[in-house]
Amino acid sequence: MSLRVLIAGCGSLGSALAARLAGEGHEVVALRRRPEALPPGVRPFAADLGDAASLRGLAGPFAAVVYAAAPGGREEAAYRAVYETGVANLLAAVRCARFLLVSSTSVYAQDAGEWVDERSPAEPRAFTGRTVLAGEALARERHSAACAVRLGGLYGPRRTRLLRAARTGGLAYQAAPPRYTNRIHRDDAAGALAHLLRRPSLEPVYVGVDCEPAAEEPFQRWLAARVGGAPPRLRAGAPEGAGKRCSNRLLLASGYRFRFPTFREGYGALAAAEREDGGCA
Ligand SMILES: NC(=O)c1ccc[n+]([C@@H]2O[C@H](COP(=O)([O-])OP(=O)(O)OC[C@H]3O[C@@H](n4cnc5c(N)ncnc54)[C@H](OP(=O)(O)O)[C@@H]3O)[C@@H](O)[C@H]2O)c1
User: Does pTM surpass 0.90?
Assistant: First the structure.
C-alpha cells in the first residue's frame, strides 16, 4: 500500500529515508527551508518549522510525519526552536495518522557503562537531552500516536570524521574506565524508520542503535588498522565516566534487520567505498 509521508527537516537522514520511501512507490513530501538537492521522486516543500505561517500550505492528511529536523547550532535556543517551537507548529498545521520524532540517546544520562533501553530512566542533565526529551513529551501530548526513535551517533557517507582521524593518527581513547559509545549507520537509521512506518502499531519509544555498543579503545584500534593509520593514543586529562550501552532489542523484536549490525560492517563499507573513489569522503 502506498503511503503519503511528510519528512520534516529533510537533511542527511531525511533524504536517505525519502529516497528509500520514494523508491518503494510511496508519496513523499520533503520539508526544509532550502529544499534544493533532494532525492528524485520527492516533492519539495519550502518552509521554516519556526514560522507557523510558512506551514499553512501543507496539504494533509499524511499517513505519517517523520520529524528529522536538526538544531542549527549548539546553543539552547537552537534546540528549543526545533524540538519545542517546530514540533508544536507542525502538529498544529498538519493532520497525520502517525508522528515519528527522530530523537536521541542523549536523553539518557547514565554514565557507568550500564545497559539502557526504552524502560530505563531518561533524566538528561545537559540542555541538549532535556530539550529533545521535552520535544518527545510535546509530541505525545499533541498526538495520540506519537513515537520517538532515540538514535545513537549517526555515521555514514559524508559523516566520516572518525575515519579521517583514524587515517591521520588523530584518534584518542579513554582506557580506564573503558568508555562506551553507541552509533548507527545512517542507512540503518533510515531503514529502521521506514520499517517502523510499515508496522501496524508502534511502541511510544524505540532505541535506534546498532547491535554493539563499543568501548573506545577496541573500536579505534579496529578503525586505525582498517585504514592503515597509526594506532590511537591514550587521551590525556581527567577521565570521564564509562558512558552507557544502549540496547536495540525492541527494534530487533519489531522485525528490523540491520544492514550494518556493528561498526565493523558499517565503517568497513565506508572505508572500502572511499578506496574505490581513490580519496576520503
Ligand atoms: N548526528 C547525530 O549523530 C545524531 C544523533 C542522534 C539523533 N540525531 C538527530 O537525527 C536527525 C537528523 O539528523 P541529520 O543528520 O539528518 O541532520 P541534518 O543533515 O543536519 O538535517 C537536518 C535538516 O533539518 C532542516 N531544518 C533545520 N531547521 C529547520 C527549520 N527551522 N525548518 C525546516 N527545516 C529545518 C535542515 O534543512 P534547512 O537548513 O534547509 O532548513 C536540514 O535539512 C536530527 O533530529 C538530529 O538531531 C542526530
Answer: yes
